Structures are given as C-alpha cells and as structure tokens.
Amino acid sequence: MSFSINTNTGMMKTNLYSNLNSHQTDKTLSSLSSGSQLGKSSYDVSGLTVSDKLLAQLSSLGQAMQNTNESIGMLQVADGAMSGISDNVDRIRVLTLQASNGTMNDSNRAIIQKEIDSLLESSDDIAKNTQYNGINLLDGSGGSSKDGTFIIQSGVDSGDSQSVTIGDAQVASLIGTIDVTTAEGREKAFESIDDALKSIGEIRSDLGASQNQLVSNAKNISISQINVASAESQISDVDFALESANLSRGNLMSQVGSFAQSQANVSASRVSSLLS
After folding, report:
1. Residue 189 buriedness (CB in 10 A; 0-12 / 13-18 / 19+)
2. Residue 207 · residue 75 · CB < 8 Å
3. In this structure, is residue 242 part of a structural domain?
4. Residues 140 and 170: beta-carbon distance below 8 Å
C-alpha cells in the first residue's frame, strides 16, 4: 500500500493570489501617485481612447479661444485707430464751418487750411501705420488675400470661422482733398466730409459687430471647455476614496498571504520531518 502527500498545491494557490493582489496593489499605487486611473493603456483600453479624444478636443478648444482673444485684440486696435481718424474728421468739419463764415478773410482761411492739412496728414498716418503683429489694418491691404478681409479661425474645425472686412481708411479713399480757401472748395468739402463720416461709421459698426460676435463665441468656447474637461475628468481622474480603500484592502490581503505562505511552509516542514 502506498500514499502521497501533496504539500505544493496550497502553496501554489497562495502564491497565485499573492501575485494577483500585488499586481492590483501596484495599479492602485500608480493611480494614487499620478491622480489618473489610466496610467497604462492596459488599465482601461476603451476609457483611454475616449480620454485621448477628449484631451485633443480640449487642446483644440484652447487654441480656438486664443485665436478668438487675439482677434478681439486686433479689432480693438483697429477700432481705437478709427476713433482717432473720426476725431480728426470731426475737427475738419468744424474748421470748414468756421472757414465758411463771412467774418473770415483769406488770411484766416489760409491758417485754417493749414490745420486741416495737418489733420488729414495725421489721419493718413494712422491709416497707413496701424498694425497688429506687423499686419496693416486700415489701408485695405490686410488679411490673407491682401484685400482687408481677415479670416478668423474661431472654432475647432476647418469650417468654424468668420470673416471680418476692415475698410480702407486712407485719406485718398476716405475723404480726398479738402480746400476751404475758396467758396467752391468749401461747398465740396461738406459733402466729402459727411461721406467720410458715414464711411467711418460703417467701418466702426462692422468692427463692433465682429467684436460682439467673437465675445459671444469666446463664451461658448469657455462653456465647451468646462464640459469637455468635466467629461474627461470623470473618465481619467482617480476616486481617491475608493483607491485608498483598495490600497488598505490590498495591504491586508498581502499580510494574510504572507501568513498563509509561512504556515504552508511550516506544515510542509512538519510532514517531511515525520516521514524522515
């Protein structure tokens, strides 16, 4: 009659459970240290894929916000410059009214003409030299097509854009020549000045409307950023309470496994001593 005593089965099971517990504990420690439950692609394959897409969308929204803010800044620069030109044209109209009064003599009108010429030159300098990032804004040559039309990439996709056209505010295009030294020149001046003021108003209205649209777009982008970031956070962020509990459980199971291994070793040793 023969018999056998298998002392290895229990030890093998103990080692298996100990290794599985060790792997889970390592995963828990990794998650707690990084703050992400997607530290490795093997942890959650589908979750990692979705998270990567959301992070890419979040980055794109960030760039769209930057594009929008920079474009708002550009339009504010243009509008500020147009305000200066508008002030000059307003002053020119006042001077033209003054020159039209019968109390003015030729010498007086010549002096007024010099101030008008100076204001026209100042306005032309503003139109030709106003820039944003080295791009002329008010001479009709700005934009990708060099025709004063600016394409603003205000969204995350290729079609999410708006165009803004800034009119040519140079003196030659806006108001032309003003001559108040003659009665005929003064009569023509009023028509030219009023047309210029109308054009200035239209340009500034376009700038204001575009700014309002971009500000509204920035608000929408901010809301989208919050929602996307929240969605990504729910997928990737660690539940610290849960993972802390898992860590405590893992440490306890590790201690239990170590005790079981030691007891298995003692039992095997006793069996061997009885049979020797």
Report:
1. buried
2. yes
3. no
4. yes
Number of independent structural domains in the chain: 1
User: Does 44 score more than 50 pLDDT?
Assistant: yes
In one-letter notation, the amino acid at residue 9 is: T
Residue 144, pLDDT above cutoff 70: yes
* Residue 5: inside a domain: no
How far, in Å, CA of 93 to CA of 109, rounded? 14
Longest dimension (CA), the chain: 144
In a domain, 32, yes or no: no
pLDDT in tens, 79-132: 999 999 999 999 999 999 999 999 999 999 999 999 999 999 999 999 999 999
Instruction: Give me the sign of the Cα torsion angle 52, 55, 57, 60.
Output: negative
- Compare 150 and 23 and report the one with higher pLDDT: 150
Indicate which CATH number applies to the domain containing 142: 1.20.1330.10
Of the pLDDT bands very low, low, confident and very high (cuts 50, 70, 90), residue 231 is confident
Question: 135 near 142, Cβ under 8 Å?
Answer: yes
d(CA 96, CA 187): 9
pLDDT band at 42 (very low <50, low <70, confident <90, very high): very low
Decide if 241 is inside a domain. Answer: no
Range of the domain at 69: 46-235
